[in-house]
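Issue: copy button drops trailing tokens. Both records pasted manually instead:
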Amino acid sequence: MLKTTLSTVALAVSAAAIADDTNVKDLQAENMEHIVVSGSRVFESIDEVPASITIINQKQIEDHLKVNPELQSLLSQIVPGLAPDTGSSSNTGQSLRGRAPLVMIDGVPQSTPLRNGSLGVKTLDPSAIARIEVIKGATSIYGNGASGGIINYITKQAKSDGKPEGEISLSSRFSAVKLAESAGARIAGAINGRVDQFSYLVTASYEENGVQRDAEGDILGLQYGLSDTVTENYFTKLGYDFDEDKQLQFSYNFYSSQQKTDLGDVFGNINLGEKSYAIHVPPAQQKQGKPQGPEGNENITVKYIDFEIFANTQMTLDAYMQDIENVFFFSPSLANPDEGYTGGQSIIRSEKKGARATFNTLVDFDSVQATFIYGVDALNDVTSQPLVDGRIWVPEMDMESIAGYLQTKWIVADDLVLKAGVRQESIDLAVADYQTLKLCRSADQCSVPLNVKGDTIDYDATTYNVGIKYNANEKFSPFASYSQGSDISDIGRLLRSATVEDIGQIQTEASIVDNYEIGFNSQFETLRFEFAAYRSTSEFGTTNKFNEVTGVYEPVRAPQKIWGYEALVDYKINDTLKLIATYSYVEGKDTKADTYLGSRQISPPKLTANLNWQPVDALSMTLSWLHVGDRKRFERDDEGNYVGDQGPIDSYNVVNFSGQYQFGQSWQVFVGIENLFNSDYYPARAQAYTYGGYNVKGLGTTATVGVKYRF
């Protein structure tokens, strides 16, 4: 029975990922809404998962792509618990339930947790994605880095009917406030098919942005900016079916997104209400250094699946390689006048090699159906953060990890779902001797470089999870869960700010995050309601503290408590009109000092609504609303300024519109308008962050028009 179930699910996944406009597609897509793979690493019904999950389907991705091609914007609009969009290329401050999420592509980690540069969300073009699964709450099912949960991009698959199919789309995006220099162009295409036992899928996209303008028509600031960026993504997936039980799959992803501009910044001051913006300047004042952004990041994955390696057991073997190079903006804070450096530009380099074996065994005990998921993970992650000029800011960190795990699921009398699991992980992190970098914000405000003795740090962690869900009545299906995550995230930030001469004296302890959650789902004829409340604690959270002597923000380890709740309403008003609304609230404290956590972790309340109207089959329109509430937890310092990430956040609203019309089977025209009413606002991060260059206003009214052809 297991082989039949898994084969059916796999076929549904493959067919629903890139489907045509037939009734079969609609049925498959509807079935896919109830299947999730990220929570336990195997296909399972969403009704069997005692946790909060958000599934973003392909239609939602395509609708939002017409408004904004950035995944940060899409996730913020749809996922309750995720902080508001930053409006930039960086997702720093865009936490998930107050902690960092682990971003993955088909289960392969894309984040760089050893030195988290907060660029992991921007790793793949939305046109290559079939669906996105977001599992909220700390988990260790995929290892290090998922203290806030998982964001898993599930890529498209080739169709199984053998007929080659494809599509190509052309679009332009421009400011409706001031057109000058703002027009950009985007082209994206895909082709897929099957020849006997061989399947193939290739997607490609290329986009050049013009300048981005705020509601007043000024060009947005360039720090992590999206003006004048050139983005390329090439993705391929090849498959071979040995027989109905055995499959081999190869995938390759290349992603680059860099800002290539001749503009320069005019920095403002959020404490004075002054925005940062960009202008045309002489060459000597233009953005210095290499173009910022991901510089040709690559992923290679090979996966082998045997749906029945032995009785009632599926085996999945996969190996992956990853090469990441994320370039950051030129910063005068990285100056060292003694050696002739007026600033600097850093690069986070990360090379990962991993292998995993996963087994899934199903056993029937009359009224109890048991599932055992078990396996072994191995990973080598080598990450560093040098400067472009050759100086070393974060030394090379060489991590070797080996982990074994067992996850069980028990379905009793079809209604009661019990889950329990354990993961044992051993990590060795080797760092050679190094010297901290001398940084000067001014001639008399410099850090003191230290020679630090390297070492190998050993981490051994056993983490557990347990959950229960009761599905006897679809009008009220409650769940409760407890899960742990083992997190050694951002060791690099601790190393580069070392104040001792031996790595063994730095507080590099792993943080065990305990996550408690209760909630329920309710399904009526035309109404679905979801609610969850949660609390997470950790003994070694990391916050920033400003060093007045060096002018550098240094990490501080302290116990943390984070709590909040989320709600979702999905209402089918009639056959043509559907509404989805969400609300999320999160708060957190440093429990040792009894002080609130800053906006790097804790976001303000967020309310979203998405109204979709489809009066006829060929025409569809979506209106979306984002409301970000107030958060004012901190006081000014003795000089009358807010510091760090503690600026007050005032509420704001953004409304977007998208529409499309289908001409027959082949042609589609579409339009999208971001910030329909030209709201003049600072995004939440821009209000809270007092660091120079972050105080950039939100995008003014921006339009997208395009056409798509399917063949």
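Record 2 (pasted manually too):
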Amino acid sequence: MEFLRNWSWTAGSAAHILEGSQSTICGPPPFIRREHSVSVARILEDARELHGDIVQLRHDLHRHPELGLQLPRTQEKVLAALSDLPLEITLGKGLTSVGAVLRGTAGDPSAVDRPTVLLRADMDALPLQEETGVDFASETPNRMHACGHDLHTSMLVGAARLLAERRHQLAGDVVLMFQPAEELLAGAPMMIEEGILELSGRQADAAYGLHVFSAGGNTGRFETKAGVMMSAADALFVTVIGRGGHGSAPHQAKDPVPVLAEMILGLQHMVTRQFNAHDPVVVSVGMIKAGEAINVIPDTAEFGASLRMYSDEARAKMQTAIPRLLNGIASAHGLEVDINYHVGGRVTVTDEAHTAFAAEQIHELFGAERHHSLPAPLGGSEDFADVLARVPGSFICLDATPLAGGPDAAFNHSPRATFDDSVLVDGTALYTQLAVARLAQLAAA
């Protein structure tokens, strides 16, 4: 990404292109001049006033989901929703990301040490055929917002509006990070490479992300956890190489199938015997492929597995323990094995102080009863971990179980997963409050 600091606007201007850059400044509309209190009650009240607009955007994004790094329509909709705000817009080069800087005008705008807070929302969908039956269901075959990223995007757009109304009370800058390809665990690293963390002109001082969940039964409840919050995610692809033959004469072949089965069981034994139960590792084999006929021993057999770890130490150990085990089993049976270990997303680790701060803002906005501290890490993975590895911050979960869903509500990534629109106000307000309160603290430090 590219960024330039020098910009100006004049009355009647809709947008300005920064010299030597593709960044755009969108001129502030008249409503920006209204006086707004930064009080918690007013933030929540203003978020409620935006509810209809946020819902409309969310439903539009849900109808037209896009996958991976290239989300051209989604990017277009986000840009349109932000077009009348006083933002410095930077578009991604290798992906259809949107980075936006809101310059607070309180304090000394020329100070080089003005604080910056980053807020992130992911935008991509999943390759699923939607089965929810909602009236705004996906209109694209085998594409679905089944992980709530349409809610995240809409809430951050809403927060951009609330923050723009309060920019004269912000003694610092806010970076809005609209990210593709979270489901590939690829978007955040690419945006970091393109400069999102320094988009305001200096390294962000704090970063916050939010994620909704479609099941849990506590609609509107926020959940946080200090320290290790989500797992690292690696992938394992294994091909056992034998020699095919007739099913009636296995002694004349080198059957890879029982060797594959032994490897799969061996991985489970390895996890329980070689790894600390208090630093867990999860190996889930989700793909097995071998042969086409019951009376033919195939030349090869394959399996693939998802690997989850909660520490860098366990992850490093997996990368040596797995090849040792699989090579040993193959050798014992006189076969060969091809092992492909793919390193994915890192462990998500939140900052203790920033997580406590996030909990405080939840209490201020909604009351202590709307907050829950997670007793253990979650099993999923997040590429926001790459942001938190470089900038202190936190990641907040929001229960969006449909109010009419009951205990059988489908979880994220299900073709039947639905999310309650009522939480859009909550997420919008929390994004806003996190930026407002954190900038105030940083400016006063």
